[in-house]
Structures are given as structure tokens and as C-alpha cells.
Specification:
- The complex is a heterodimer of chains A (113) and B (113).
- By secondary structure, chain A is an all-beta fold.
- Chain A is 0% helix and 53% strand.
- Chain A has strands spanning 4-7, 10-13, 19-25, 32-38, 44-51, 57-58, 67-73, 76-81, 90-97, 103-104, 108-112.
- In chain B, a hairpin with a 5-residue loop joins strand 5 and strand 6 (44-50).
- Chain B is built from no helices and 12 strands.
- Classes of the chains: A mainly beta (113), B mainly beta (113).
């Protein structure tokens, strides 16, 4: 079946650094990719929707300059958390779809010290 | 606005017990409904779905029926196993929103041997 790979799976870094998370669709071309954030024992909150070759659409309350999303090809989208701070620590999950349904990556646990 | 509400967890059951996780939704259109499962430290996996009223989704012994009259999509399984321990998310997708999913808060299931 369809596979979505997310990398890295875990990252720990110092406050103030920028972190890039990759989301790849391995065996299909993803016209749309989604980025979610999940706090412990809570639901997934959609951060943004990205379509290949165009700017991402951010949900209300999500800072565009803080969470940079690039969807440069039909198989790769990246999320960069710029100047990360401890409050950005969370579990970030991407999903990708060609038609239906969405296929999810295994998530990236980001810890900012 | 559109939303999904699930019964609160955690739900703790003994092996072979009957499982019900309630899910109700509010939507302005005619959504598709989904159940996703998340194992510890992993992303989400699609468990089952239903795209119109009275449809029944089923997979791995789990079932859910799309009830338009009660705006519900309750998840059931006749006999749970320890390996079913996970967090279960109910979600809806409006067909005119580019594939955007709206998730419930998740229900943690713990099955004891």
C-alpha cells in the first residue's frame, strides 16, 4: 500500500535553532500534503495544507513565518520550524494524498531544550 | 462550525470484551466519516470509513455505521485483543474542502489480558 515517510522521527535541539522535517510519499505522487501538530494526549490540529508548486494554506492562528512549508515536488514537502523555542515542542505529523484517502507519516517528535 | 466529538477515555477493557467508542459530528454539508488508529509513537492508520448515510465501514473486526439521523459514527468490535490497545480518532471530511480532515479528540483504549 501507499507509504509516507517522515524524517527525522525524533529531534532534540537547542532553543533558537531551526529544524526541518521532511515528508515523502514513496510510491505515489502526492498532489496535496497536510501538516498536523499533536500535543500529548490530544487530537491532531491541522496546521497547513500544501499543494505542489504553490504556497501553503495555513490554518487560523498558525504563524506562516514560524512554520515554513515547501512543497517543491509531487513526492516531497518540508516543514521548517524557524527559531524554535520550548513551546514548539510537539509531535508533528504529515499526511499525503493523491486522490483518497490521506496516508499518514509516522510523525516527528520535536523537543526544544 | 464543523466538529467531531468522541467519548472521553481512557477506556479499559479485558480481552474478548465488547467495545463501543462513541462519535458524533456536526457538519454543514454531507461529510465522509473515518476512524483512524494511532499506536504509541506512530502516525495514524486508516481503520475504516463510510462515505454516505447508512454505509457501514468494517476492517479487522471493527465496524461503524454512518447514521445521518443521529449524526453518529460509533466504533464497535465484538471481541477486543490486547493488540487493539491504541488511541482511536474519529474524523470527518467535507467534500468541498480539498481533503481537509477534522479530528475528534481521540479515545485511548487499553485492553488487559
Amino acid at each position: 500500500g501507499a507509504v509516507v515517510s517522515q524524517h527525522p522521527s525524533w529531534v532534540i535541539c537547542k532553543s533558537g535553532t531551526s529544524v526541518k522535517i521532511e515528508c515523502r510519499s514513496l510510491d505515489f505522487q502526492a498532489t496535496t500534503m497536510f501538516w498536523y501538530r499533536q500535543f500529548p494526549k490530544q487530537s491532531l490540529m491541522l496546521m497547513a495544507t500544501s499543494n505542489e508548486g504553490s504556497k501553503a494554506t495555513y490554518e487560523q492562528g498558525v504563524e506562516k513565518d514560524k512554520f515554513l512549508i515547501n512543497h517543491a515536488s509531487l513526492t516531497l514537502s518540508t516543514l521548517t520550524v524557524t527559531s524554535a523555542h520550548p513551546e514548539d515542542s510537539s509531535f508533528y505529523i504529515c499526511s499525503a494524498r493523491q486522490d483518497q484517502p490521506q496516508h499518514f507519516g509516522d510523525g516527528t517528535r520535536l523537543s526544544i531544550l | 462550525g464543523d466538529s467531531v466529538t468522541q467519548m472521553e477515555g481512557p477506556v479499559t477493557l479485558s480481552e474478548e470484551a465488547f467495545l463501543t467508542i462513541n462519535c458524533t459530528y456536526t457538519a454543514t454539508g454531507y461529510p465522509s466519516l473515518f476512524w483512524y488508529v494511532q499506536y504509541p509513537g506512530e502516525g495514524l492508520q486508516l481503520l475504516l470509513k463510510a462515505t454516505k448515510a447508512d454505509d457501514k465501514g468494517s476492517n479487522k473486526g471493527f465496524e461503524a455505521t454512518y447514521r445521518k439521523e443521529t449524526t453518529s459514527f460509533h466504533l464497535e468490535k465484538g471481541s477486543v485483543q490486547v493488540s487493539d490497545s491504541a488511541v482511536y480518532f474519529c474524523a470527518l471530511k467535507l467534500n468541498n474542502q480539498g481533503g481537509k480532515l477534522i479530528f475528534g479528540q481521540g479515545t485511548e483504549l487499553s485492553v488487559k489480558p
